[in-house]
Specification:
11 strands, 4-stranded antiparallel sheet, 19% strand, Arc Repressor Mutant, subunit A, Rossmann fold, 242 residues, alpha/beta
Length: 242
């Protein structure tokens, strides 16, 4: 899952980012209001953590524009403004929760998880593809009766693949969602982690779920998409559509 943190306090935003990364989230950080608003309106986030007093565009304006764009992403306001009037005003503008500074990172993470359980689009706590199961609450994966041990990044990658089961995900889509906007690591990082996952969920199983579509990306599906795409091209040719 991917979180956007909008806060002009660089040390604080990096502290929040580290805490969220430890919980397997991918995190983008914006340190001014305009950048935060651009990120929020351009990308699809699972949750947004928003400071109110920002350079450029204020937090209240960002709230209004996000909701005006019909985005239902859960938003947690994180601010030093702690009056009842401030809380009521921003909850009415569209915030889903309100946490005042200073705060404990454990509480912030707990609130984010609570928002993800109930917020935005309807979510299911357990993802299933064939006999592969991923429990978002316990962050445990199983294939049949066998428990699968995952690192934090392997978990985040598997959750993204299972949440988009049957859909072809490109390398850039995976990097943007599982890593973050500032990622500038090795170019084959997705291939490396796909290999790790494949060894854990498909090794020794006659029904392979994790598929590579050369030149396109990856998909988690019981159906062999390569075969279906090939059959589709045959039909297109026969019908004169391709």
């Amino acid at each position: 899952m991917r979180i956007l943190v909008i806060d002009d306090e660089v040390r604080l935003s990096e502290f929040v980012k580290r805490g969220l990364l430890e919980q397997t989230f991918a995190v983008d950080v914006a340190n001014d209001g305009q950048s935060g608003l651009d990120y929020a309106l351009t990308y699809d986030y699972d949750a947004i953590i928003l400071d109110l007093m920002l350079p450029g565009v204020q937090g209240a304006t960002i709230l209004k524009k996000i909701r005006g764009a019909k985005k239902s992403v859960p938003i947690l306001v994180l601010t030093a403004r702690n009056t009842l009037k401030d809380k009521v005003e921003h909850l009415e503008l569209g915030a889903d929760d309100y946490l005042t500074k200073p705060f404990a990172i454990a509480e912030l993470v707990a609130r984010v998880k609570a928002l993800l359980r109930r917020g935005g689009a309807p979510r299911t706590s357990v993802l299933r593809v064939a006999d592969l199961e991923l429990d978002r609450m316990t962050q445990q994966a199983r294939r049949g009766n066998q428990k699968i041990e995952l690192t934090s990044k392997e978990y985040a990658l598997l959750e993204y693949l299972m949440g988009n089961a049957g859909r072809v995900l490109t390398r850039s889509m995976i990097i943007e969602h599982v890593w973050d906007q500032s990622f500038d690591g090795i170019t084959n990082i997705v291939d490396v982690y796909i290999g790790h996952l494949r060894a854990k969920i498909d090794a020794g199983n006659p029904k392979r779920l994790l598929r590579t579509l050369r030149g396109s990306g990856y998909s988690l599906s019981l159906v062999n998409l390569v075969v279906w795409l090939g059959l589709g091209m045959v039909w297109w040719k026969l019908l004169g559509w391709w």
